[in-house]
Amino acid sequence: MPRLQKNDNFIDKTFTVLADIVLKILPTSKEEKQAFYYYRDGMSAQSEGEYAEALENYYEALQLEEDPFDRSYILYNIGLIYASNGEHIKALEYYHQALELNSNLPQALNNIAVIYHYQGLKAANQKKSHLSKEMFTKAAQYWEQAISLAPNNYIEAQNWLKTTGREYYSA
């Protein structure tokens, strides 16, 4: 199960060693520990661009992880992979599942907004103004939520909201 560390990065190795120590001393079940190992291996594979391997590890982690908060991050990371592969519908599904378990994930809200914004630009380029406006409105709604949770983040989104007259939230 443990992924061979291909990365010789000192910080990655240190994190792995510390995580292993913490897992040994924390009173967690065998399943929770296995879930964490799969999650950690998934993150490692994802950072190296090994998306298929990362997905395998994340799906294994989901089978074992019971904590809703931890599951939300697994689902979020699965969404990241699908988004980076251009599978926006699947990415949206996983981001929404993550938010159902943990509504305090501004990064998921931001990523949903980014996808809707991209779809809005695509529709505008295809001269589909009604669809474009609808997608931009959705993007604005999700960016508003993300910004309300993390007011110091997403500066470009805040500027877009202001310059397009879509700003509803005042930080």
Automatic annotation (TrEMBL):
Name where it's found: Membrane; Plastid, Chloroplast thylakoid membrane
- Alphabetically ordered keywords of this record: Chloroplast, Membrane, Photosynthesis, Plastid, Repeat, Thylakoid, TPR repeat
Spans of the TPR repeats? 35-68, 35-68, 72-105, 72-105, 120-153
A cellular component term from Gene Ontology for this protein is: chloroplast thylakoid membrane
Per the record, the domain of life is Eukaryota
* One biological process term in Gene Ontology: photosynthesis
Membrane topology is:
Peripheral membrane protein
Q: Which SUPFAM superfamilies did the record assign?
A: TPR-like
InterPro entries documented for this protein:
PSI_Ycf3_assembly, TPR-like_helical_dom_sf, TPR_rpt, Ycf3/AcsC/BcsC/TPR_MFPF
The record's annotation in PROSITE patterns points to:
TPR, TPR_REGION
Record bears the keyword Membrane? yes
Q: What is its main location?
A: membrane
The protein's role, per its UniProt record: Seems to be required for the assembly of the photosystem I complex.
Similarity-based family: Belongs to the Ycf3 family.
The molecule here is called Photosystem I assembly protein Ycf3
The organism encoding this protein is Alsidium seaforthii
